[in-house]
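As a warm-up, study this chain.
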Amino acid sequence: MKNNPVLAITLGDPASVGPEITLKSFTMDDFWSRGVPVVCGDLAVMQAVRDTLGIPVEIVPVKGVADAKELPPRHGDRPTVPVLDQKVVTDVTDLQVGAVSALAGNAAVAYIQAAVDLCNAGEADGIATAPINKEALRDAKQQYIGHTEMISEMSNGKKGITMFQVDKMKIFFHSRHVSLRQAIDLITTDALVDSIEVARKCLASVDIHSPRLAVAGLNPHSSDGGLFGDEEAREVKPAIEAASAKGINVVGPVPADSVFHHAAEGRYDAVLSLYHDQGHIASKCYDFYRVVSVTFGYPFIRTSVDHGTAMDIAWKGIANPVSMREAVIAGFELAPKYQSVYDMA
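Now compare it with the structure written out below.
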């Protein structure tokens, strides 16, 4: 395990809250005590946001990780922010702050590519990402749908696997961006066994071995013995029994109105949410700003804020940086432990 990991931090969409929350996050935690932070972004954008909003940081351009490692963590009372300048936005008057544009979309992709390149070259150990805008990617004629697919294509081409975490609560998702009707159809015994095994392997990849897993119920009260549907008896329970037979410590289905609370208390190491909103609502109601999205499957760990670009408040000094700080902290904590799930036996 590395004692001084390097984390590449992407600036996100430059016309969004990404630059603000990235710079503010440096003022909220001593990142340098955790490792070496390197921001992949545009120097001109970062300087403009710092000066406009009066954020007390020292932005220092670097040519690479080696230069960043030589920097002092602070300049007086201001934390040091190393930036690997991508030179996409060199004149901020060209940027439409708070608006979708091809320039911003191209810049966001360049930042991510630079961060992935650092990881692929073995110079960085993980990535923490600020939010990007899918419409800006489209306007820039970028072929990517979003972060997950983009980083997959730029690295090993393997599917990214998402987990949410906030405090003790960790949540995996059996399905995500599909309709609720489709999500119910995807709840099959074989598919659930696969999801349970993937969750176990992802946790093992960050040194959480033999985790206690819980599968959330689908219907109210997990169907109350068949009073409200039969999916639990027909698909979910057989999957849990099959996974248990493989030596996985998994229980359920636990009613969804209580299982996430139990996870937050530490009763379970992770919960398998059966569909997108089931886990999203639970985590975001628990603490909206501190939820971190963790992506497994790449050759490196990726952490991210779990909110959008908030164009309506871009560069106004009112964006909440807590999620960005939490994403960076999680990246520093997880990156030294991580082994890609696809490389594990």
